[in-house]
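Let's sit down with a protein and look at its sequence and fold side by side. Go ahead whenever you are ready, and we will take it from there.
>
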Amino acid sequence: MVLFYTDAGIKIFSQCYHEDPVLYIKAYSPPRHSEADSFMYITYDECMCIIKGAELFPLLINSRINFNRTFGRNAASDTAGLPAADLLKYQKFMFSGKNGGIINDAALTGPRSITAYDHIIEQATGIGYYAKVNTTPRQHSMVVGVGAEPYIGFYYAEEGYRTTSLGEVAKGVIDMTYRNVWGKLFGQPERQEEPAPNPSKESKMRTRCQFHDGKRDGYTIVLSPNGKLAVVTDNLDRVVLVDVQRGILLRVWKGYRDAQCAFVPIKERSLKGIKTEHRKALFLIIYAPRLGCLEIWALQNGPKVAAFTVTKSGQLAYNTHGLMGVTPGVKVKSSTPNYCLFLDPSDDSVKEIQIPFHFALSESNSKTSRDVHLFRRLKTLLRDLDNTANIDEIVKLAADFQTIEVRQQCLDMLKKNKQLRPKMFQKIVTAFADSLHSEAAAEENQDNEECEHFKIIIDNYKRLAEFYVTIKEPIEAEFDDYLELDDCDLVTINQIVLLLGDKHVLPNPDSSEPIAQHSGKVTFQERCQEDGDFVDFLAIFQMDIENSLPLLREKSDSFGYISGQLLKNFFEYGLCFEELKLAITKSKIPADDMMVLALHFWMDRPFRYQNCDEVIADMSRLAAMIRAICELAGDRVCDYAYNAISQWWQDIREIILESPKSLGLLAAIVCKIVASKLRREYREGSCDEGSQTEDEEKWEQISHDQAQWGLLIGKLEDISILGATVEYPIQSAEPVMPELPYKPPDCSLKFIVNGGKGIVTDLAAQWLINSRIHPSKIAAVDLIVDENSAQECFETPAKKADVVETADTDEQQVIADKKEEQKSAEDPVLKKLKLLREHFPFSLETGMLLSTMSWQYMVHWSKNLPHLEYMRASLTCMSQFKPEDYALKHGICCMLWNATLKYPLQSTMKLIHKAGRLPKDKMCQQDIEMSSSSVPNFLELCLEFLEHFTTSLDHNSRELKFEESLTEGPLPLQYLALQQHNAIEELLQLHHELCAVLHLIAALQLKMPKPITNVFDGMANKTFFSDINKELLYELPEADLVLQQQREHFLCKAISASMDLIREDFEQLYIAEHMEFMDKIMALAERWKLRKIGLIRQQAVEMYAHGYDEHGEVLLKQLVDDEHVARLLLEIAGRRLNLIADSSRDAYMNIASVGQQLLHYLDRLRETHSGGIQISEYEVNPGSLVALSKLITHCFEILSQREPTKYLHLAGQMFDAVSILQD
């Protein structure tokens, strides 16, 4: 009985396959990429039962889910009555020709495929000479059984089907055709098909061959993973290696009682960049419990490669199958199975047996495989560098490498390891170098060219690591050789210190932040940082040149940081320049490249100086370092003609040109002094210069090369002041403008020279924008400078001598005190702007700065349309232009109109014209990328822009001036602005009118179908958004009477809508916003040449209709003889009387007593309530009656100036009715 349990110990299935006891249960899984099925086989004394995995595992899964169905099936007799669905199908193969033989163990090798010839030979040998042989063999598997009589037997377990040949298929087709056609014609009975063999029935295995040994009894058999070899243990303490395919005994091991065996396949591992053959090897593991020994043998004829002493109570676990029960076609992540494990009860552990591939090779063929194994071991040790033993073992492994490829791979891996330590790397490359020299002496390397190339690399790395360790741990020495600077250089240094001294304040010792102290111990973070710096240091050198270590110039971006980490300790504590020269000489680093590192180290340092003495001290150290490097360079430093340029110093000047910081100026000063001293010493030591007189010597001290230093320092001084200012952004004392993203620029001289004439203006404008200073302060700086210069011109010595009275002295003292207060409270941005203007007076004029600021604000707004504050900031800058800069202003307006404003305004016009009003937020976001609430503000700003545009039309010519030090390059913005043609005034006025109309519609929420075509004629609609600088080919016609009426109607609607802007809070009336829109409406009416009398009439009527009689009376003074306004006001008075009559019956009777004509007029007003003038709510009180009486009086006075009409009589009756109501 075979029982199946879950991992929880619950029995879920059981079935009896044979009545005898079970000897072994084993599994088989096919190799990868094979279509064969996996199966489990059960070995009995007389037979072997095979169960397919595709049938077993689905049944087990279902049984696990419904394990209650298996209850009560423990007996073998119970399985007979079960349905077929609950029984597991299997194949039973009986061992043939036992004749009293005993089977102790058996192994199934899986399906075999043999050739036709081998099949015929096996059939003839096994069945007989006269046997009927099939042309195609049946599919079968080989079973190897071990026991007694025979000792080893080889059997064929043939399955119930066979492959069919093409001839057999043709024969079957002909036979079927004959039976179907001729059988029906002549009545021949059809042949019965033979039933297919039942796979669960017994079938006998056919014997291939047997080994008989009467004294030998086989106990166990272990099959290799590939199924080609097997190992058999027997009662004579032998271990026999068997070739299963050929049926041959290959090898016998003696003296292993109760041995346990296993096979371990090993693949040859490869490394990237190292070619291997991807070979495979097979090892045999023999565990002898009686001896307490575990041995590893190389197959098939290999030696014993290893032996271990283990516990005597262990167990060797061997597995030859992979994952079973997987549905065919399902992809499973492949994993290499653990073929052999050793269960060690002595320490309750499971040990895995790992064998290097090179153990299977001979000494001559195992170098690469052995090095690969050592390299993997080295990689594992590199993960834990804190252990000193690991470091020693790493160095030992590196010395044991024998192939160039693995050494190169190891070197590449070390260069990528950020935790690599300099001293450990030095030991490893030393081990490489020693092993290479020893191999070269023994002439073991055949590839001499590759070996020599690798030797050069290793020697270079060795020297480079030694140089790094020497410089990082310098010998401390005192330094007292300070530079002698002239007054001009001291002034420049002092100016830079004043600009940058407050930018990098040293840490406060009283602060709570911990300050790193220099001690013998370093933290983990500092050490990792240092190790990463070493890897970066190795990466910047070219290592394949013999006796030279030049820099890789393509990695110049990292020179500053790497040299800073390298020379920091030496510069601060070492200063032993003899040691520096010795280290450079040993390392074979060229003097040119060492000079590059020294200059980058200085130029990339942070400016942390608070006074000039600190700067001069570090400049002196830099001078000593540069002098030491120049001494290594030899005579080429000073050996050049008087009127020539030294190539050495010219290369240094090229490096300083690219310095983005102010320290480049200090480096130039230092190099100039060092070059002068070296040149003087060289001339003093030269015999040719000894006959010169003292005057000639003084005259010739300024050579052509010295003049180049003077020119460079003069340019660098201006650039350094600019860089020191714009590199560190500051905020204005009163920041009011919006902030733009700011990235500190690269202010190297090379960048400034290549940036064109407008580069200084651009950098200063960006810095001013970031400071958020108001543009009016920038314009005020020019006014203050002009006033001070004018005052200095008009003051005379005589006038200054006349001021002797004490009162005047007191007044001057007060004025001086006020000036001091103003200076102390002056904006720091303006202070630095004044300093910059001393060096760049033309580039930093107010008009130049304001034009760039306006452009940058507006361009930033065009990329962020909802943020109108940037557009407003641009217009603020435009408002500060002086009249003499209107030419720049006009050009900038032309460029901004075409680049930023034209298309958003055009989209807004199309949207409002299409909707007939300001649409909802969703449509605005979709079409113009801003909310509906932002559209009125946008149109108002457009109006302001067009006003600036129009006012700048009247301008004079403007010439641009730039500093001589600025060279040609990209055209400056101001030059492009002045190249713009003047805008056409008619187009500006037309677009101004368009913006005014759109603003009224959006701000007052007016609704009007097709508003643009209603208030503008066809020619104007055609002209909208045409080229603003191009003359029109036609004239815009004057508005006709119909268009004038439509425009007047539009403005009247705007006036009516603007009445909603009047707010009344308690007793105070807020009318300013309404009056502001009235000014805009009147200005538009004036542009359209409309009569204002109709608009004033509309405003007056709306004032009375909303109950603001006081403001209406003011407007009536302009409408003295307007009969139409009297009729409208009379209608308002009538509607008020209707409200009074509706309030009480007595009031109605009093009004009706005046006359029938008044009563009919009031009834007609009630009937036309929806089509007439709408009035606000009206409260009946004595004050309201007095106001109504005044209104009627004004109507009577206006109507009485014309011939009497019915409206005059109505006004009189209304006046009588109000008088009655008052009484």
Q: What stands out?
A: Residues 524 and 690 are 61 Å apart (CA to CA). Residues 2-72+86-161+202-352 form a domain with the Methylamine Dehydrogenase; Chain H fold (CATH 2.130.10). The longest strand covers residues 102-112.
